[in-house]
Amino acid sequence: MKNFNPADNIQDLQCFGEFGGVNPSISDSSTYTFLSAKTMFDTFEGNMEGCYLYSRHSSPSNLYLDKALAAMEGTETANVSASGMGAITPTLLQLCGTGDHIVSSRTIYGGTYAFLKNFTPRLGIKTTFVDITKLAVVEAAITAETKVLYCETVSNPLLEVADIEGLSKIAKRHNLTLVVDNTFSPLSVSPARLGADIVIHSLTKYINGSSDTVGGVTCASREFIDSLKNVNSGASMLLGPTMDSLRSASVMKNLRTLHIRMKQHSHNAMYLAQRFEKDGLKTVYPGLESHPSHEIYKTMINPEYGFGGMITLDVGTLAKANELMELMQSKNLGYLAVSLGFYKTLFSAPGTSTSSEIPLEEQIEMGLTDGLIRFSIGLDNDIERTYQMMKACMMDLNILLS
Ligand code: PLP
């Protein structure tokens, strides 16, 4: 990981606006004029670098954000989209067609799971879901039709860690494309540096960080991104999940503080995970030595950004989980809400919310228990105060006894 710091790569970019503005100008146009018809034709053919055609294809504002996110992930280029799903679905549809097969981690965001389980079979694309932490199981699931290996660096919601280097070796051996959703671990992990071919984010979460928009990005080679945007055959161009220029300009501004926020999210999450584990609660956090992939995750991260802001606590039953979340919200400790990466702590019971697309028996098999609460730990200034207040809620409900 020498000489690669994703936050420095963002910091080093300079893009000025018209009239010398310190922020790039926002391109508030859906279409662009050409001085000659020939240039317009060449742009359609994809042969005119620096010319803009139509904002569903690309716009100057989106290209600034593409550039910054590609710099962060260390890929040649990137393509932003209107949501995380708007990045995931065209990427997979660009890579796979009828008859093709995907091997995917079974613990992934519920929407992605539903897309692979219920939607892509309609197009003749099949997926085998596996325990991504068992490399031999992953390799055994590969068939002659497999095109893609899909996982999340840190999985939603169980916080399982994918050994990206190990998976990349398997992908190379079988000529597959390794697609990694890095939404839970921006800056902390740089999957492309570990061998991933394509890195995806839901920008909705940490990267934007203010829970005011949805957004997504696919970071990859220029060849792949050009194929996604191809006017005749590109899944992004033709399905149209384009981010609006005004929004990409605002995401870009938030991206600049990501490194500071990630450090604080990680610091706070580590603090609470250590305390609650010591108190005897079933706590899952990749920064704890008790996490099954702690050792490997330690080797994967850019250490200054820590182990991330996501924790799960198992409080026994769904009824207790619901009571606790309602009580914590009433004490203003956070919000009972899905999503993550906000300044305020967010909590939800994934079995009945973000992972409810996963059938109950499969939830049980993967260890997604009823009493599990997923926390996205916020940017609280005094985390000891937060800990004491959360602990008091748990004692009120007899989840903790002392
Ligand atoms: N990937 C992960 C890991 C997620 O948690 C989510 C949403 O929760 C998504 C992708 C989808 O992103 P979006 O909601 O921006 O479409």
UniProtKB/TrEMBL annotation:
GO terms for biological process: transsulfuration. InterPro entries: Cys/Met-Metab_PyrdxlP-dep_enz (IPR000277), PyrdxlP-dep_Trfase (IPR015424), PyrdxlP-dep_Trfase_major (IPR015421), PyrdxlP-dep_Trfase_small (IPR015422). One of its GO terms (cellular component) is cytoplasm. The keyword Lyase applies. Keywords: Lyase, Pyridoxal phosphate. The keyword Plastid does not apply. SUPFAM superfamilies: PLP-dependent transferases. Its cofactor is pyridoxal 5'-phosphate. The modification N6-(pyridoxal phosphate)lysine is found at K205. GO terms for molecular function: carbon-sulfur lyase activity; pyridoxal phosphate binding. Belongs to the trans-sulfuration enzymes family. This is Methionine-gamma-lyase. The lineage of its organism: Bacteria, Pseudomonadati, Bacteroidota, Flavobacteriia, Flavobacteriales.
